[in-house]
Amino acid sequence: MKLCIYHNPECGTSRNTLAMIEASGETPQIIEYVQNPPSRECLIALLERMGMPPRDLLRRKGTPYDELGLDDPSLSDDQLIDAMLVHPILINRPIVVTDQVVRLCRPSERVLDMLAAPVKTFTKEDGEVVTYSEDR
Fold first, then answer.
1. Which of 38, 70, 73, 81 could form a disulfide with 42 if both were Cys (CB 3.0 to 4.6 A apart)?
2. What would the pLDDT profile of 97-129 be if each residue is shown by its tens digit?
3. Does any domain span residue 34?
């Protein structure tokens, strides 16, 4: 299976998601999107595949969200996308892409049912143990 992760190594959720992917035996393509942001076309395609409006992909914590006034409900989707392209740290993470699905993996265990051979038990960086069951 082809798998890609839009990853920020500074983010614990993103690191945990990547570790779960690797623990399953997958070798994902890793895109550190803060240094290598997606193109407008790619970002729009990711949003469409997730069925998510741009506002729902915005990250507020640790970003210029407030100083840019991005909570203004009159801002259009195009304006929000423009802000994410100029300040890619605004893009929430991690986004995991497979041939079948694209998903924002918050919390990190949202990746498990995307994997061909998901790990059954995983311990996150903070010590939380995640147990995967196909009955989820």
1. 38
2. 999 999 999 999 999 999 988 889 999 999 999
3. yes
Is 11 an active-site residue? Answer: yes
Number of domains in the chain: 1
- Predicted TM-score (pTM) above 0.85: yes
* Catalytic pick among 4, 11, 42, 105: 11
Adjacency order of strands within the sheet including 3-7:
29-32, 3-7, 95-98, 102-104
Element (H, E) at 48: helix 40-50
Could you tell me the CATH number of the domain that includes residue 92?
3.40.30.10
Q: Which domain holds residue 93?
A: 3-131
pLDDT digits (tens, 9 = 90+) for 29-83: 999 999 999 999 999 999 999 999 999 999 999 999 999 999 999 999 999 999 9
Q: Count Cα atoms within 13 angstroms, Cβ side, for 112.
A: 17
Q: Is residue 47 part of a domain?
A: yes
